[in-house]
Specification:
Layout: E1 12-14, H1 17-31, H2 34-52, E2 58-63, H3 67-81, E3 85-90, H4 99-110, E4 115-117, E5 127-131, H5 143-154, E6 159-162, E7 184-188, H6 200-203, E8 206-210, H7 215-218, E9 225-228, E10 251-255, H8 262-274, E11 279-284, H9 289-295, E12 300-303, H10 311-316, E13 319-322, H11 330-341, E14 346-348, H12 351-358, E15 368-369, H13 373-380, H14 384-389, H15 391-402, E16 405-408, E17 414-416, E18 423-425, H16 437-450, H17 455-473, H18 487-494
Parallel strand pairs: 2-3, 2-5, 3-4, 5-6, 6-7, 7-8, 9-18, 10-11, 10-13, 11-12, 13-14, 14-15, 15-16
Antiparallel strand pairs: 1-9, 16-17, 17-18
Helix pairs in contact: 1-2, 2-3, 3-4, 8-16, 12-13, 13-15, 16-17, 17-18
EC number: 4.2.1.136, 5.1.99.6
Binding site for K(+): 68, 130, 166
Domain YjeF C-terminal: 229-497
């Protein structure tokens, strides 16, 4: 097998609300006064605002009742002292409640700052700063807060959120009710796990971080997940040795392509080849064999009739990619049962997951599941909305339920496995929301598994490679992006990236 660049420490640590609150308390103790940390937050937010909107003169800061609102008062005080037309808007119910927010509000007033009651709009403002709730909100905003959030989103103005777009659950990445759609969000203290998956993709805008000089205190905090960025892909797949031969890179068997669905199996096979598998076989309906050979003669195509045996093909395979276009009829179910009976490592997708949902069973060690939210919901007995409401929990539960690796697809794809810290894929784009993209991912992960990557690492590296290839292909535009457009970029990134 090819040498693999082992990487168990790739990625940027992400933290949950409990870790951030503990860090905030530790920093307040170190500084001797929690207000000193709030002052740092206000200064960091003011610097970030100036970096993004240096020419803005009229600023409205919408403050909530807690410490996030306190950060907003501090920012607004600095903006006012700089000579900007800066003012605070709030509803009566959002008068400061915490001691620190009260101190920040008083300091703002003493500096000559103005506080106005929110009505319905923002006057002549050029920028809205969202300092409503921060990480503390995990419920649906009440009616008054929802009215403010609706007004922010309808304003057409750029929106700068402090720490978290208000209404977004910073742990789960979901929005239980109304949520601010930020242009830019400055995270404070540490990166928040929920800002990289699910609804956060729509709500958070561009992301930045200020640690408020808490890096030393952060070192011992528990990590909720690791974020994998495009740069993490470089060097992950080691170059082939000079005397390599095809047997070194493994043999992938793609099983799928029921009548009318042959393209799915072809896409999986092409991705496996482009991502470095030494040999790729395809077991599909006989009617699809001519098209497969015409498009990709490098794949070894095998027509399998209803009731046909996979035994000779299973015996030769190092990894089985099962499910693209498989169908749930008698033909697909029979091939599914044969594949699961083998001791060969499995990557399950599409109808293989739907068949698994119909009858839960013990899976071979090292199996990799690649569900989208709908398939995950069927496997768990949930709704897709419930999966999306807490993607981290859904991925962990699936991994524990089946004792395997799970790639929960979607914005901010998650990779989970028993006794592993989850990974979040910080790449990919909306243009990839088209049929066939998942088939490529299945083939990509299977190819890495065949090249001797462990199951969890195959899933992490494969999901990142697939997403980065999608971003490369989308440089020509997201709308109209096709799975085939990713094949050349997948090959490029499997070899280290454009500049390698």
């Amino acid at each position: 097998m090819d040498a693999v660049s082992r990487s168990h420490d790739r990625g940027t640590p992400l933290y949950d609300g409990a870790a951030l609150r503990a860090l905030e308390a530790e920093m307040a103790a170190r500084l001797g006064d929690g207000f000193a940390l709030m002052a740092r937050a206000g200064q960091a937010a003011w610097r970030e605002l100036l970096a993004h909107w240096p020419d803005v003169q009229r600023i409205v800061v919408v403050c909530g009742p807690g410490n996030n609102g306190g950060d907003g008062y501090e920012l607004c005080r600095l903006a006012h002292q700089s000579g900007r037309d800066a003012r605070v808007l709030r509803i009566e119910a959002h008068a400061p409640r915490s001691e620190l927010a009260q101190r920040a509000c008083e300091a703002y007033r003493e500096a000559g700052g103005r506080i106005k009651a929110f009505s319905d709009g923002f006057g002549r403002a050029q920028l809205v700063v969202d300092a409503l709730f921060g990480i503390g909100l995990s419920r649906e905003p009440d009616a008054d807060a929802a009215r403010v959030i609706d007004a922010i989103n309808a304003s057409g103005l750029p929106v700068f959120s402090l720490d978290v777009p208000s209404g977004l659950d910073a742990d789960r990445g979901s929005a239980p009710g109304r949520v601010v759609h930020a242009t830019h969000t400055l995270q404070l203290l540490a990166p928040h796990a929920g800002l990289y998956t699910g609804a956060a993709a729509r709500s958070a805008g561009s992301l930045a971080l200020s640690t408020l000089e808490a890096d030393e205190a952060l070192a011992g905090a528990p990590v909720a997940a690791y974020r994998l960025d495009p740069d993490d892909l470089r060097g992950w797949i080691a170059p082939r040795v000079r005397d390599a031969h095809k047997g070194d890179s493994g043999h992938v068997l793609c099983i799928g392509g029921d009548t009318g669905k042959g393209g799915a199996a072809i896409l999986a096979a092409e991705a496996a080849l482009r991502c470095g598998a030494g040999l790729v076989s395809v077991a599909t309906r006989p009617v699809h064999v001519p098209a497969l050979l015409a498009r990709r003669p490098e794949a070894m195509a095998h027509g399998v009739d209803a009731g046909g045996s996979l035994e000779p093909l299973l015996a030769q395979a190092d990894v089985i990619a099962l499910g693209p276009g498989l169908g749930q009829g008698e033909w697909g179910a029979a091939l599914y049962e044969q594949a699961l009976a083998a001791s060969t490592p499995l990557v399950l997708d599409a109808d293989a997951l739907n068949l698994l949902a119909q009858r839960t069973r013990v899976l071979p060690a090292g199996t990799i599941l690649t569900p989208h939210p709908g398939e995950a919901a069927r496997l768990l007995g949930f709704t897709a909305a419930e999966v999306q409401a807490n993607r981290f929990a859904a991925a962990r539960l699936l991994a524990e339920m089946f004792g395997c690796v799970v790639v929960l697809k979607g914005a901010g794809t998650l990779v989970a496995a028993p006794e592993q810290v989850p990974r979040v894929i910080a790449a990919g784009n909306p243009g990839m929301a088209v049929g066939g993209m998942g088939d490529l991912l299945t083939g990509c992960i299977a190819a890495l598994r065949a090249q001797d990557f462990p199951a969890f690492e195959s899933a992490c590296c494969g999901a990142l490679l697939h997403a980065v290839a999608g971003d490369t292909a989308a440089q020509a535009g997201e709308r109209g992006l096709l799975p085939c457009d990713l094949l050349d970029p997948m090959r490029t990134w499997a070899n280290g990236g454009p500049s390698a």
